[in-house]
Amino acid sequence: MGACGANEQELFDQGVTQLEASEYNKAIGYFDRVIEKNESNTSAHNAKGVAYFQQGKFDEAIVAFTTSIRLDSSSYKPFFNRGNAYLEKKAYKEAIRDYNFANGLDPQQLDIYYNRGLALLALEEYEDAIMDFDIALQANPNQALVQFNRAKAQLGNNDPLGGMESLINAINLDSNNGPAYYLLGVTQMSALGQKEEGCANLKMALSLGYKEAQTWVDDFCQD
User: Fold this and answer.
1) How far is CA 106 from the centre of its chain?
2) Is residue 109 a contact partner of residue 76, using CB atoms and an 8 Å limit?
3) Which domains does the chain have, with CATH numbers?
């Protein structure tokens, strides 16, 4: 059946196909046609928000997610998605609020814990951030970014040994993580006085293109 005579579900499915193909404007066009047929189609509003989000149009995405929530507040997805848009806008308190709603609706969604941890980390709520990262890692400890951000929360929480352990885990999972080598080197030198080990990691960070390590190498690691 051609698009002109397509029904609501067919239009939605075509929109999802365009969304998955990164054809975001085309996807929005299909979702708008779904909404013209049924303005109460919460999935279309949510999916339209995802298309806007992928384009970096976070304000438009928030409007779409909010409409989806207003029509049906029983799904975690638009709350989670709106939280992600707020996270991108650095509106961390608003993001946490939405992640809390999403978590209450579906506690099994592990991405909620990680993303809420990022927002808590940004607000320097280190202990709560660590708790969320720990939950994400319980399900799968082999997540380099979670280990890395957990390390940042631990260092912020004055736990250099725990932070170093998490940084080593992150590096073992992703040997190209320059910022992890940098943080590990700085912590080794500043917290434990381990100059040789710290300089080796700072130089590794620099070799991976993490230029912030240059000052430390110049100041402390010259032979």
Assistant:
1) 18
2) yes
3) 1-108 (1.25.40.10)
Question: For the segment 101-131, what is each residue's pLDDT rounded down to a tens digit?
Answer: 999 999 999 999 999 999 999 999 999 999 9
* Residue 61: both structure tokens together: 């995405």
Length of the chain: 223
The model's pLDDT over 41-51, given as tens digits with 9 standing for 90+, comes to: 999 999 999 99
Residue type, 151: A
Q: What is the secondary structure of 131-172 as a DSSP string?
A: HHHHHHHHH-S--HHHHHHHHHHHHHTT-HHHHHHHHHHHHH
- The answer to whether 46 touches 72, Cβ cutoff 8 Å, is no
Distance CA 189, CA 195 (A): 5
